[in-house]
Amino acid sequence: MPQAGSYLQGKRILVTRAKEQAESFSKQIEEQGGIAIEIPLIKIQSPKNTDIIEKTLLKIHTYSWLVLTSINGVQYFFDFLDTYNITFSETDRPKIAVVGKKTLQALEQKGFLADLVPDDFVAEDLFEKLIERVDKSDTILLARGNLGRSLLPEKLGELGIKVDDLILYENVLNMEKQADLIHLLESRSVDIITFTSSSTVTNFVELLKETTGWRKWLEHIQIACIGPITEKTAIEAGITPQVVATEFTVAGLLDAIIESIGRRN
């Protein structure tokens, strides 16, 4: 973290990510003097029908590569292995590619090492790194959530590489938080809104779309996005971010917020 002094002191910062991931971000905000307000706009849950997950994981050893794109993906992958009593060892597994430092850390906490970690935490960079390592005879298991981008399986498919896109968990709209969100914005009780994924933006708009005048409530609120993909989603929704992280992590997002406030001061 940069030496921020009191740049975040008293700043009310909305954390919109899922409850399971909000705590660590809130802690970082509070360590910098900010006030974290958690209103999770996403709920993470297992798919209702998990038959395809069981069938796919029973043949995990037939894949050349396993691609994990999030902490949730890592957690659900290993949870399902346990549920179905499937053996998965460091000496008998596909090569593993992960997106992002936190995903890598989650994998390592499970006792496994990644064979490929792209420098940039986006699908485009993962694709570029993967095509240097795979050929048409390889099969890839992409294990992720239901809102993952289609770029990776489409681009690899165009090259004739077989990709199985396995949905391990679902990101769903958290309707329970609609009233809290509206009250927070209408009462002007927040200074900065953070979006840590495209789905946080989409759900934000979905929860507010039938509320008159909600866009006016954003006029004096700083909008901060974790990276260019989330920024693009926000702009397409008619929301203009003032801050976009260059390191696509919550720590990088917080750094970008602090630097933005510092410049204005």
UniProtKB/TrEMBL annotation:
Keyword Lyase attributed: yes
Pathway membership, UniProt: Porphyrin-containing compound metabolism; protoporphyrin-IX biosynthesis; coproporphyrinogen-III from 5-aminolevulinate: step 3/4
Coiled-coil stretches: none
Keywords (A to Z) from UniProt: Lyase, Porphyrin biosynthesis
Catalytic activity: hydroxymethylbilane = uroporphyrinogen III + H2O
GO molecular function, one term: uroporphyrinogen-III synthase activity
GO biological process, one term: uroporphyrinogen III biosynthetic process
Keyword Membrane (UniProt): no
Family matches, as InterPro entries: 4pyrrol_syn_uPrphyn_synt_sf (IPR036108), 4pyrrol_synth_uPrphyn_synth (IPR003754), UROS/Hem4 (IPR039793)
EC number: 4.2.1.75
Domain Tetrapyrrole biosynthesis uroporphyrinogen III synthase span(s) in chain numbering: 24-254
Family: Belongs to the uroporphyrinogen-III synthase family.
Function: Catalyzes cyclization of the linear tetrapyrrole, hydroxymethylbilane, to the macrocyclic uroporphyrinogen III.
Protein name per Swiss-Prot or TrEMBL: Uroporphyrinogen-III synthase
Organism lineage: Bacteria, Bacillati, Bacillota, Bacilli, Bacillales
